[in-house]
Structures are given as structure tokens and as C-alpha cells.
Amino acid sequence: MPVPSMLFPADPLNPRRPDPHFAWEARLVRELGAEHLLVDHDALLAGRAEEAVRRVPLGSGPLWYRGWMLPSARYAEFAAALTARGGKLLTSPPGYAAAHELPGWYGVFEGATPPSVWIPTAGAVPPTPEELAEAVARLGGSGPAIVKDYVKSRKHEWHEACYVPELADLAAVGRVVGRFVELQGEFLAGGVVVRRYEEFERADGPDGDGLDGPDRLSDGDGCDAAGAVGGAGAVGGARGGRRAVEARVWWLDGRPVLVGPHPDAPHVHAEPDLTEVSALVRRLGCRFVTTDLASRADGSGWRVVEVGDGQVSDLPRGIDASGLLASLIAA
Fold first, then answer.
1. Residues whose CB is less than 8 angstroms from the CB of residue 2 and which lie 6 or more positions away in sequence, other chains included
2. Helices (DSSP H) in 60-218: which residue ranges?
3. What gap in Å lies between CA 301 and CA 160, rounded to an integer?
4. Strand, coil or helix: what is 321?
5. Are the C-beta atoms of residues 309 and 289 closer than 8 Å to each other?
6. ATP-grasp domain location, by residue (predicted)?
7. Which of 42, 141, 307, 326 is the most exposed place for a label (fewest CB within 10 A)?
8. Using CA atoms, how far apart are residues 161 and 177, in angstroms rounded to an integer?
9. Is 70 exceeded by the pLDDT of residue 238?
């Protein structure tokens, strides 16, 4: 069986080199005896997939992508352009969407993750008051919550565009949702999600840098993003910068191949219980995924904060990724 090659985004200022953020991964892939290839991420986002993959050799065979996240529709175009050149992404477009967008994975993980509802939107148009009232009712009608889209939150605008202290205050829900949609603009992914806020165990220490932007690597939002849905984390400014005790687990074909800290807090180490989540990951059926897990503040166990496609999930600074990359190369 051919050894998979690894696709990385090219440096926009020097297209013959990997993007600086991924240069260390590309170097490690070479040291492991595999090949890395470069694609133009900006062209992918602009809908010019054929142009984006022009440096990928014809007949390149099996491929993994490690790069900045892409909207699901753009990923499908990416896959089609590679297929036309004799390449094959080992994560299919349906598999990418299932792991990358909350509605794709929520049904499998319901009960192991904070309760959530979502409202599909046509572009950057806020849901109507009636739609929001119905969504709130489906979450029980009261209590705190956070707002995000199918992929990302606005965790750095915590009080303004992320956290809702009380769902019964529908005017406040509307304000937060409206501001969130306004700030996401053209980068709003899929629709508006409302998730129940849950308290998680927290750790002292400074937050990491994380990558949070509409065309950046997915940081899974984590506990910063979702308060406690994402956790009790740093909770924007609300918690004085304290992060949740959170772990990111990397899974390949249903098997955990790397457990480490969340990229937003590489200093916070945890050892999550994977007993329940292992079966759920296998049920999801996606080849390469990540799960962000946080420990409940009351000590009652671990919760799945987010699920993500492993190709566009960030690695924490300083982690040894050789085992993860070797597993991908051997897949």
C-alpha cells in the first residue's frame, strides 16, 4: 500500500516552503521518511481549488491534510481537485463535515457533551426572535449558555458575543446572538448554536496563545470559548484568566494515538478517562478526529467539550507529535 503524503499550506510569502506555523511538522514528516506537499490555502478559501493544488504532483495517491481549517464546502472542492490529479484525501468530505461541524457529531455525543441546539442561517443573518425563543425552550428555558456557530465562538468577546447569563432573558439572548453574527460576518459557519453552560474544574496559570480566527486552525474553542460548555476555562475575562483542566485527544481509526493539553493552555496537563468517549469516537466513524475533554467541577467525571477534524486541529506548543505523525504515515 502506498505511504500517504502530508499536505501543508504553503507560506504565502514563499510558496515553495511550508507555512511557518507548520514548518516543524513538515520537518518531522521528512525525518519520519515521508513526503510533504504544499497547497495554497488562500486559493482554497477563495474557491480556486484547482489553482490551490497545482503544486501537488499527478498521481500523488493517499493524502492527509494538516493545515488551516476550511469550510466544509471548500474542503469538498479541495478533495475533488486532488482526485482529478490522482490524489485522494484519506478523510472524505462527509467525514470532514461530520467531525468539523457540531451538528455532524452532536447526535453521537449527546449526553456526554453539554446540551446544545442550533438554528441554520443563510449567511450572516441573525435568527428571528421566534426562532431564538424556540431554541431557548428546547434547552429548558432558563440558566446560562454560550453562543457560537457550527465551528467557532467569539470567546475573546465573552460578554459581548458569547456568554448569556440567563436564557430566560430573551432580549439578552437576542443581543448576544446578534452581536455574534455581526462579528462573524461572512465567516459564520452554518448557523447559530446555543449550548448550556457547565462548570468545569479550573487550573491557575496564564492562557496560551491559541489560534482563533475565521481562517485559522481550529482550536476547538475549548473551555475558554464556551465558558463551561467549552468549559469553565478562562471564561473570557469573567474568571480572571483561569483555564479549565482540559485535554485534547487525537484519534486515528477509533484509537487514541496522542493525549495532550489544549493548545490554548499547553501548561495545563490532564489525564482524562477515555472509557466512555472511546466507544463514541468509534461510533462516529471518522478516521482522524480530536476530542477536547474537561473535568467537571463537582468531580462527577469528564465531558466532551468539542469534537474536531484532526487535520485542522492545532497541536500545543512543545508536544512530541512524532507518534501521531508516524501513525498517520502508516495508516
1. 61, 62
2. 72-84, 93-100, 102-109, 129-138, 158-161, 170-184
3. 30
4. coil
5. yes
6. 139-328
7. 141
8. 7
9. no
pTM value is: 0.89
- Same domain for 101 and 82: no
The contacts of residue 278 (CB under 8 Å, 6+ apart) are 254, 256
CA angle 49, 330, 63 (to 5 degrees): 5
Residue type, 75: Y
In a domain, 16, yes or no: yes
Residue 262: CATH number of its domain: 3.30.470
The DSSP secondary-structure symbol of 70 reads -
Neighbours of 113 (CB within 10 A): 25
Q: Is 44 helix (H, G, I), strand (E, B) or coil?
A: helix
Q: Is it the case that residue 94 has pLDDT exceeding 50?
A: yes
Residue 68 lies in domain: 5-90
Cα 236 to chain centroid, rounded: 18
Distance between CA atoms of 309 and 288, rounded to whole angstroms?
6
Kindly report the length of the chain.
331
Q: What is the pLDDT of residue 221?
A: 54
The DSSP output letter for 151 is S
Say which CATH number the domain at 191 has.
Answer: 3.30.1490
